[in-house]
Amino acid sequence: MTERPLGAQISHMLKARGIDVIFGIPGVHNIEMYRGIEEAGITHILARHEQGAGFMADGYARASGKPGVAYVITGPGLTNVLTAAGQAYSDSVPLLVISSCLDETAARRGQLHQMIDQEGAAACVFDWSHEVKSVEAVYTLVERAMNEFAGARPRPKHIQVPIALGGSLAAPAPAPPPARPQRPQAAVALVEDAAQRLIAARRPAIVLGGGAVPGASHVAKVLAGTGAAVFTTYSGRGLVADSYPLNLGAYLGRPDSAAFLAKADLVLVVGTELAEVDLWRTELGHEAPLIRVDLDPVELDHPMSDLAILSDSAAFLGALAEALPEHGQSDWEAGEVAELRARWRKETDAERPGIVPVAHALRAAVPEDTMIYSDMTQFAYAAKEVWPMTHPGHWHHPMGYGTLGYALPAAVGGAVARAGAPTLAIMGDSGFQYTMQELGTAVELGLPLPIFLWDNGKLKEIEDSMVRAQIAPNAVIARNPEICALADANGAYSARPDTLEEMQASVRAAFDADRPTLIHARAGIAEGL
Question: What pLDDT, in 10s, does the model give residues 90-134?
């Protein structure tokens, strides 16, 4: 029982629970958190901004399956990471942020980094936010976070440690528990009920979301046993082979996907909120009975389900696959599905001209096992519909909260988690300027990270929205920096290709480089403009 300052004991506790990497920025208030990082055998990644640290931890969590951890300081450090926490909340990412806080705020004013209510501010975007008053409370809350990451819908947690407490001597944390809580498993009777309904249906339709990704190995058997037509959300892409004849792809957000679903006589929805950013409408469009499977009981309430199953999606899909026959039949016609997909692809191309050919060229230059982190940019909006995915859970986009600046720092975290495996960042020219300082971190780490930057010289999606609303476009054009010069100044490589062939060559070279490469792709590149 070796006593150490509490900050050091926290790092040892995290290491004992499988945490190998922490992202953050040290400050005068949280230096005690840094006393034990190296001693515990943890790698610390220095971000350039706390928002970047949060996104890095998010990207690391998505790539590794482990919780992402960030250390930040009192006040501005905490408020800077809130955007990343909001994104992690929307996308169900296990993010643990540990911050320092002032010892006394009620009777003192004007202290460095003082906020009116730091704990309360964090509670607005984290799943929960608590200030600890004792060593035991720190250990209890860290353990609670780990248990909830394992056994419930993963969402960000915040623990704030008073400065004096962080430096006080403390006994080591208890040993990790022998097992973590398991996520809920569907009752056998409910799985059997769902299977019998699917077998009896003549036009079953399935919608698979990001929550179904852990059950990817069971999807092909479920489809074979039902003959179902299937949509995936953007987060669920890769769950269904592109060759499956009844695969409607990630076109759920197309308005007339509702008309297709209205033809179904049974709809099964697994692992998705059916949120606005999944549908871009208020209703799914079905008229048939609905079977809903989700880890979060809140999601089973809307739309109302005829059969609601609270379950881990992987466990449900595995049990369902075993309950279905080897070969199922339906009345869906593959020709209708192929016709719809072709029409939706043309719509995507027409809505955002010039992007689809570039997306196809980029995909041809990228290894199939590449993990992609994209930003809020028109390039990603179009590419997410037409880019066939062969690996589920390999494209991460800031859904829901929809923050700009996500892709670069999140890709840094993902590349750290997947050392030696290909990672790609896709950003727009405006989004890049939100977190472009994190290019310095990527250079320091020597990451072979291609950063594909789509430059249309404006906030084009907002301009298009203004035009549709008959508003004269305003405040949508900003002077961009010299993108390649900026990359060079940070020590990164850069390329400004003039043709798709040059772009592909730059991307391929970037995966083999000894540092990141910023690839400045200007709108019009497909036409050689």
Answer: 999 999 999 999 999 888 999 989 999 999 999 999 999 999 999
Is the separation of the CB atoms in 253 and 231 below 8 Å? no
Residue 267: per-residue pLDDT: 98
pLDDT over 70 at 283, yes or no = yes
Q: What superfamily would CATH give domain 188-340?
A: TPP-binding domain (3.40.50.1220)
Task: Report how far residue 300's alpha carbon sits from residue 433's, in angstroms, rounded to the nearest whole number.
Answer: 39
Q: How many whole angstroms separate alpha carbon 467 and alpha carbon 464?
A: 5
β-strands 95-101, 128-131 pairing: unpaired
- Report the C-alpha gap between 8 and 38 in whole angstroms: 9
The answer to pTM > 0.90 is: yes
As beta bridge partners, residue 494 has: 518
CA angle 347, 349, 351 (to 5 degrees): 65
Tens-place pLDDT, residues 185-208 = 999 999 999 999 999 999 999 999
Q: Residues of CATH 3.40.50.970 domain(s) within the chain? A: 4-170, 352-527
CB 513 within 8 A of CB 448: yes
Question: How many angstroms separate the Cα of 484 from the Cα of each of 428, 453, 480, 494, 521?
Answer: 14, 10, 11, 5, 11
Beta-sheet strand order (sheet of 204-208): 229-232, 204-208, 266-270, 290-294, 307-310
CA angle 107, 110, 115 (to 5 degrees): 80
Q: How far is CA 475 from CA 463, 479, 508, in A?
A: 9, 11, 36
Average confidence score pLDDT of the chain: 96
Q: Which CATH number fits domain 4-170: 3.30.565.10, 3.40.50.970, 3.40.1260.10, 3.40.50.2300?
A: 3.40.50.970
Could you tell me the two tokens for 14? 């995290």
